[in-house]
Amino acid sequence: MKMIGALFAASLAVGSVSEAGAQMRPMGPRSLAEGEIVIQSNRSITLRPESDADVAKQQDEAVRLIYRMAERECALVLETIGATCELTSVSTDVSSNEDGSVRGPMVRATGSFGMKVKLKS
């Protein structure tokens, strides 16, 4: 019976910590002014480096290309639907395959971009 009481007390303590952690998280969406929206865009590229190429350099080049794509995202939005565009987030992921499969070595990079856009009137 003491064991059950100890487990119950431990579960209450864990529950209290979880509730405290939940209270520290920001609540609700970012505030947007009238006429503003959030746009999320995802892009990916695949490079096929030469067999003797330095993989780390190829990965850097792939990420560099993703950053250039992020830079162009706002330009595309401004050409079409946006009066203003603010790049608010960028995340990247890069991987490589050197297994010598039928397609040969590859470096793949993906990027995700968040933008706050005020729509044209």
Summarize the structure in short.
With 121 residues, the chain is an alpha+beta fold. 40% of the residues lie in helices and 35% in strands.
Describe the secondary-structure layout.
Elements: H1 2-24, E1 36-47, H2 55-80, E2 82-97, E3 106-119
Antiparallel strand pairs: 1-3, 2-3
Can you walk through the features of this model?
The protein contains 2 helices and 3 strands, in the order αβαββ. By secondary structure, the chain is α+β, with helices and mostly antiparallel strands. It has a 3-stranded antiparallel sheet, covered by helices on one side. The radius of gyration is 23 Å and the shape is elongated. The model is unreliable at 1-28 (pLDDT under 50).
Give the count of helical stretches.
2
Q: What is the element string, with H for helices and E for strands?
A: HEHEE
Report the portion of residues in β strands.
Answer: 25-35%
| Secondary-structure content class | alpha+beta
Characterize the biggest β-sheet: 3 strands, antiparallel
Rounded mean pLDDT is: 77
How many DSSP-defined strands?
Answer: 3
Distance between the ends? 70 Å
Oligomeric state, counting identical vs distinct chains: single chain
Radius of gyration: 23 Å
Strand order of the largest sheet: 1-3-2
